[in-house]
Structure formats: C-alpha cells, structure tokens
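<goal> How does this chain fold?
<body> The protein record starts here
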Amino acid sequence: MNTLSISPSFSMSTSLPVSRLGRRTCIAAVVGALALLMNPAAMAQAWPSKPIKLVVPFPPGGPTDTAARIVGQKLAERLKQPVVVENRAGASGSIAAVQFMKTAPDGYTFMMLATPTLLAPHLYKKAGYHTVNDFTPVATLYDLPIVVVVNPTQMPTVTDVQKMITHAKARPGQLNYTSSGPGSFGHLSMELLKQMGGFEMQHVPYKGGVPAITDTIGGQVPLMYADLVAALPHIQSGKLRAIAVGSPQRVSVLPDVKTIAEQGFKGFDAVSWGGLLAPLGTPKAIVDRVAAECSQILAEKEIQDKLLNVGAIARFQDPAQLAQRVEQDYTKWGKVIQAKGLAVD
C-alpha cells in the first residue's frame, strides 16, 4: 500500500498560532494527498506530467518505426506531452524487450510490439522474456499484410499461387525463395504454405527486407515473401509482380491481388502486425487511457492514409483483444517454428 510520510517538523500542536480554518485546510491537504496515493484512478488523472518514451525495438525507417512515429506524434498532441521515440535494435527486438521488461511501470515508457519480437522467444534459446506473460497489452495499432512477389523476368508465367506450386514441383529442390531473414514472418508464412500445399522450395535468408528485395529485383532469387511496406513501391513500378497476399481479406492498395485463401488454401491467415505494450504493473487507468487515445487516433482518416501509404492498415484492438491476439499468434506460429526445427543462434 502507498504511504505518505509526514515530516516531523509539521505539527498540529495548539501551541502554534494556527487558526481553525488553517487546521482544516492542512488536514484536507493531507487527506487529499493520501487519497491520491491510494487511488490509481486519481493518479491517472494527473498523468502525464512529463515526456513519454516509446521504445521501438528495430532500426529507424522500418514499418514499426514509421507507425510509432505517426501514432506517437498524435498521441503527444492529445496528451500534451512529448512522445520521444527511442530505437533499440537487435535480435528481432529481444534486446529491447528484455530491457523494457525491467522498466518502472509508471506510465512513462511504452514499447512497440511487432511480430518478430512476439515470436523471438521461440527462435532464440536465450531471448530472456516470455511475450505472453511479461508485458501488459495496451492496443493493436496496425496490420501489416505480407505478399508473395516474383521477379516477372525470371518467372514470366507465374501469376498466381497454383502456378508457383506447379513451377516448384517441376523443379524439385531447385527453386529458391527469400525473406527478410531466418525466422522472419515471411519465412514462417511460406513454410506454412509449403506444408499446406505439399511442395518444396529452398529458403535463402537475407539480413533484412531491403537487401532481399534488391536481389529479388536483380534476379539473384526469383521469389520472395515480403512485407507489403517494403514491396509496394516495386510492385507499383512493375519491378515485382504480386501473386498473393497472406491476409484473410484483400488489401485496398492491391485490390486485384487475390488472397492465398482465395487460391485454394481455405483458412490461410498470415498477417504481421504491430501494437503497444506497457510494463507489467502499469496502472489499469493509464493503460485504458492510452488505449482510448489510440482508438481515437486510428479512427482519423489522415492517420489511416499515412499508414496505408507505407503499406500498413490501421487496426485498433483494446487491451483484452490484444492480449488474446498475442496468445493466439504466439501459440500458432510457435507450432510452425517447432515443426520446422527453426532456431536462430
């Protein structure tokens, strides 16, 4: 329980020339302070009184960082306090997550959660945290569709998933695909599709989406399962051909590209996403306040358009919904990782 320490120099002795009104005022102040300390809702009303830190566990410029800055700017305007983005990259976000786990739960530090960080404990033997148990979910902010793209010069006849599978089966063990790295969401999604479709391709991992896309465009690897954020400009320019999206519904920026589910794989659902976490023990009133602000921010057409311009789709989920999503995806993709024996040193 919170306690209030009153200085010994403060006395209500009748020897002091304090009027009855003065005594009442002092007593009211003490009682009010005690009520504030013992009432989390009252504390939340006084929050925030200083800048808020938003940790992004990836380098600047990626989809998680971009979304954090878009939402963070509006959050700062609504809370009337600066929101300072701090990038702490490394090991799929696990380095930042371990540090964040030890942060004081005072409502002044939050962290972006993206799918790589969600799944890192399955991939890294010494990740140092458990995504489901060690954080407080606040809000989902965006969905990040992933897309299967091919080099149109290298694979001129491959225009859909079934033709890709036919192409792969005609060349057993010879067709390569790439992703942004071993254990990346693109990697896991293609492994799930291979499992469902009964075909084989060899994974050629890259360290990051940009070099992987660069070599797909260059023809070194003919096919990639990519983040829409990274692939969209090259799809629009014609350097890459999109043959499927992994989300259950088509995406508005690629309305003619069918989902994998539409192409013979009913129930296929592979969507990367990003959300906001707080340290365990953060007052519920503060968590609910931030979630409510995020809901209002993501309802703004301006914010939806800014996110869509980089290939992300504004998606709000409250703390309970995000908690359920974290647990479901952690379990679902953990099974894929275990079945494939995937691990990152």
